[in-house]
Write a structure and sequence with these properties.
Largest sheet: 5 strands, parallel
CATH architecture of the largest domain: Orthogonal Bundle
Distance between the termini: 83 Å
Shape: elongated
Helix content: 55-70%
Order of helices and strands: EHEHEHEHEHHHHHHHHHHHH
Length: 377
């Protein structure tokens, strides 16, 4: 049984004798008892200091107990306070109305003191138990929220660490991870308004895409240094080996994803790693997928990856200007890239340029990106 000594009661009755009897009887439970002799006084008392339970007479001059109950139950601040009607009105219809208005119990006069005490104890104990459950629920929700935030942070840090493995193998691409993850989020968010993609790029998918994008080239850790870091053009044999980075990445992520289950964010990372080198016309690798056979996340990543490769300096090339990169992607519409995604890219290409400037690597790239794209220039 809960300790009820700190509970607060409000007794409402227009008869002073009844108030005296009830206060004396219930003092064994708690001494924190307030009284009111009419409806308005009762409402004022609740407003000033909400009690844990109210014993409420019905037949009072002016505002009766039904109206007091009705007003309290209409208030978001006070509707949770349990009300016990205690009245000489003992008809079934009176009791039914009391319960319909939200009362939890109904005691008829003349009352037995022991019965009143027993019912008050029962309902106060229930109220305390409910309050304890509510507090426990709030504490649990806070802990779940904290744990979720910890897991999200752990997930993001893990992804960044894994992605850095590939980045360290190719030191000229320091900002590539930050740029591409922001490109794909911008493009996917814009595509939410497109009929083909509104059900694909949900907020949850976009967030997973943003977090997973850095892993698109994780498979490069399996490519030999003499191929990955070669400054000149790759031979046919070397290029065939380079292509395998998509499969290496997919396989390594699949091992982790299988352990985390079907809902793992790594499922999106797997699709990105495997398909970001596929082309709309089927001429890409490693599977030669065509059109909608390529997962949407892979198509978005492909466009973002190519744009960033074009505007970035490499040992074997100077950076393209933003305008040159946009023209290149436009030329690849329907061949390398999903046509609708190219159209969306053109609409937000200035956002791409600003992202590139925010996470820039080299002064040469800054010069190349300094001028916005002007169609037909």
């Amino acid at each position: 049984m809960h300790d009820l000594s700190e509970c607060t009661l409000l007794i409402v009755d227009d008869t002073e004798t009844n108030l005296d009897i009830l206060v004396e009887a219930l003092a064994d439970i708690t001494e924190d008892i307030s009284v009111a002799m009419d409806g308005p006084a009762a409402l004022d008392s609740v407003q000033d200091s909400p009690p844990d339970l109210i014993l409420l007479d019905i037949m009072m001059p002016g505002m009766d107990g039904y109206e007091v109950c009705r007003q309290l139950k209409a208030s978001p601040d006070f509707r949770h306070i349990p009300i016990i009607f205690i009245t000489a009105m003992n008809e079934i219809g009176n009791k039914t109305l009391g319960f319909e208005l939200g009362a939890i119990d109904y005691i008829t006069k003349p009352f037995e003191v022991l019965e009143v005490k027993a019912r008050v104890k029962t309902h106060l104990s229930l109220q305390k138990a409910q309050q304890a459950l509510t507090r426990q629920k709030e504490i649990l929700e806070i802990r779940v929220k904290e744990r979720t935030q910890e897991l999200a942070l752990t997930q993001e840090v893990t992804i960044e660490c894994m992605a850095s493995l590939a980045e360290y193998r190719d030191p000229e691409t320091g900002g590539h991870i930050q740029r591409t993850k922001n490109y794909v989020r911008a493009l996917a968010t814009h595509l939410q308004n497109h009929p083909r993609f509104k059900d694909v790029f949900t907020p949850e998918t976009i967030e997973s895409l943003y977090l997973s994008a850095p892993l698109h080239d994780i498979g490069k850790v399996g490519v030999p240094d003499h191929i990955l870091l070669k400054p000149g053009k790759l031979t046919s044999e070397e290029f065939e080996e380079m292509k395998k980075h998509t499969i290496y990445g997919y396989n390594s992520l699949k091992v982790a994803a299988d352990k985390l289950g079907d809902h793992s964010f790594l499922r999106i990372a797997m699709d990105i790693a495997l398909t970001h080198q596929e082309k709309w016309d089927g001429s890409g690798y490693p599977q030669g997928l065509k059109g909608d056979e390529i997962p949407p996340v892979g198509r978005v990543m492909a466009l973002a990856d190519v744009y960033d490769a074009l505007i970035s300096k490499r040992a074997y090339k100077s950076p393209f200007s933003h305008q040159q990169a946009v023209e290149f992607i436009l030329q690849g519409k329907g061949a390398h890239f999903d046509p609708d995604m190219v159209d969306a890219f053109l609409e937000i290409q200035e956002e791409f340029r600003q992202i590139a400037l925010r996470f820039i690597d080299f002064k040469e790239e800054q010069v190349a990106l300094s001028e916005p794209y002007h169609r037909g220039a």
